[in-house]
Amino acid sequence: MDRLVHLSIDNGCATITLRRADARNALSFELIHALASTIAQVSAHITRAPDEVRVVVLAGEGKSFCAGMDLKAVLHDPVKMGGMLQQLSMSLLALRQLAVPTIARVQGAAIGGGCGLVVICDFAVTHPEAKLGYPEVDLGVCPAVVAPWLVKKIGAGPARAMLLMGATMRGDEALSRGLVTHCVASDQLETATAQLVARLITGGQYALACTKRMLNELDGSNDARVARDAAELSAKVIASPEAQAQLARHFQTVPTPPAR
C-alpha cells in the first residue's frame, strides 16, 4: 500500500499522500484500492486513539494533486471500470464521514475524480495557477460520482452549470466559485496548510466530531445509496458506444467492437 498511498501521523495530523507522481496521481484501480484501505486505516485509528489524529490532510506527490480517473488504463474493460467507480465513490463517502476535519492540499491539477477528492474535504487549499474542474462531458463521460458532492459544496444551480459546461478553471476562480476555501501563492501552499492544521487542532475534539456528524446528516452525506447509484450510472455511460468512441479518439486508441 505504501508504494501508492503513504500515511504519516505527526503531532495530531494524519497525512494521506497519493504517490503516483509519474502519472500525475491519476486514479488507477490499484491506487483507488490503496486509498480506500488507507482511509479505513485512518478511521480505525481515530476510533482507537482519537488524541493521535485530530486533522487529516489529503495530498498528492509531485507536480499535481490528482489528474482524475485513469480512463485509458481500463478504456476497453467496462467491468473493471465499474469496480473502480464503485470503490472510488465509497471512498469519497468514507472520507466525508471521518470524525475529524479534512483538508485537501491542492497543487497543479485536480481534475474530475481528483476534483471530487477536493470538494469532499472540509477545507481545500490551492494556488492561483492550479487547474481544477470537471471536463467529463467533454469526453463523453457522466460525472455522476462527483455530482452529489459538488451540489453539497456549491449548491445545485452552480453545480449544474459547472458540470454541464465541463472544462476546467484556475485556482483563483475555483476559490471565487466555492470549490476551494483558501488560495495562496504556490510557495506558501504547505505553510498555509500547516497553519490551518494548527488552527483546527485547537478546536474541541468532541465538539468537532459532533458538528461534522450533524452537518453530514443535514446535507445527506451519509446516504450510501446515492454513492452506489452514482457509480452505477457513471459506469453505464462510460460503457456506452458513444463514450467508448469519444475516449478512444481522445487517447488515440482503437475501440473494441461491441459484442453481438
In short, what is this structure?
It is built from ten helices and nine strands. The protein has 260 residues and is of the alpha/beta class. A hairpin with a 2-residue loop joins strand 1 and strand 2.
Task: Say what oligomer this is.
Answer: single chain
Tally of distinct domains: 1
Q: Given the helix and strand composition, which structural class is it?
A: alpha/beta
CATH homologous group name = 2-enoyl-CoA Hydratase, Chain A, domain 1
Characterization of this structure:
This protein has 260 residues and is of the alpha/beta class. The protein has a single domain, classed as 2-enoyl-CoA Hydratase, Chain A, domain 1 (Alpha-Beta Complex), CATH 3.90.226.10. Helix content is 48%, strand content 14%. The chain has helices at residues 29-48, 78-96, 113-120, 147-154, 156-165, 171-176, 189-201, 205-218, 224-238, 241-251, and strands at residues 5-10, 13-18, 55-60, 102-105, 109-111, 123-126, 131-133, 168-170, 182-183. The strands form 2 sheets. Strands 1-2-3-4-6-9 form a 6-stranded mixed sheet, with helices on both faces. The longest helix is centred in the N-terminal third of the chain and has 20 residues, at 29-48. The chain is globular and about 50 Å long.
